[in-house]
């Protein structure tokens, strides 16, 4: 049984803590967060200890895995600290401001001989897995164009870091990284990037961002990102090939599956998620299985560098108004 300590008790930390309660071969043993109230609350839910710093947790607990769910600009120091102690590292949302930072994290884990995986959870969503399978099996013929859209709500996060462009954490850029990763995973390397959005000193002064990508295999992809929803999120995918067209739309606010049961108290209605198992649980289970079985995670640090190259090119295109060739 692998013992997991989690750093960060916010939105993603809460999701991960719930996932670990259902994962085979892993047990959550501690929560780290500098916001004591958040750490106490989440630790109490799962009956584990909480600590204000990773250093204190490492001194007190015998952990095997460190799961880092922190703001992007705080990730590097914690990844390096965990690797130095010989801990396997799972890291959320690795979008740092430079390739050098990313390489330092990757190399630190490699030198320490520990597993390092970065979250790209969209690969574990069944609908996106199905879409990739259709492309791989040439069910749509030769693909020419892809359209993707992702609409999100404004996040309620501490110190408003999510909107701070200086921290490379603008929520639209952070959100569409999922789509960029899926495109690279499915179609290969990106050749050229063009982005449109109003850029200010502290972030994207707009509720919308448009990114056009030319893949090296000739596929043209368009990603539209926005943050105008009151709550939840919405995503859309369209893949057009010579042999067919596939469209997919997800709306968090849409009606779930409803089952009807006859009980002794009358008719009972129960909502059911069509996902069955959370993609976050599937992703973390994959990482735990890789550690146990001595296998490499499907998402390596070097995979993340490809996505980071594109994100940095999007930033450069926004700043210059020009198309960027990779």
Protein traits:
Gfo/Idh/MocA-like_OxRdtase_N; six-stranded parallel β-sheet; 326 residues; Gfo/Idh/MocA_Oxidoreductases; nucleotide binding; Dihydrodipicolinate Reductase, domain 2; 2 domains; seven-stranded mixed β-sheet; NAD(P)-bd_dom_sf; 35% helix; Rossmann fold; Gfo/Idh/MocA family oxidoreductase
How would you characterize the overall build of this protein?
GO terms for molecular function: nucleotide binding. This is Gfo/Idh/MocA family oxidoreductase. Residues 128-244 form the GFO/IDH/MocA-like oxidoreductase domain. It holds the Pfam family GFO_IDH_MocA. Residues 2-120 form the Gfo/Idh/MocA-like oxidoreductase N-terminal domain. This protein is α/β, with parallel strands linked by helices and 326 residues long. It folds into two domains: 2-118, 3-Layer(aba) Sandwich (Rossmann fold), CATH 3.40.50; 122-277 and 300-325, Dihydrodipicolinate Reductase, domain 2, CATH 3.30.360. The protein is 35% helix and 29% strand. The chain has nine helices and 15 strands. The protein has helices at 11-20, 36-46, 54-60, 75-84, 99-112, 126-136, 171-187, 279-293, 301-320; strands at 2-7, 26-32, 49-51, 65-68, 88-91, 116-118, 143-153, 190-196, 208-215, 220-229, 233-241, 244-251, 257-263, 266-272, 324-325. It has a seven-stranded mixed beta sheet. Helix 1 packs across helix 8. The longest helix has 20 residues, at 301-320. The termini are far apart. Mean pLDDT is 85; it is low at 165-169 and 253-262.
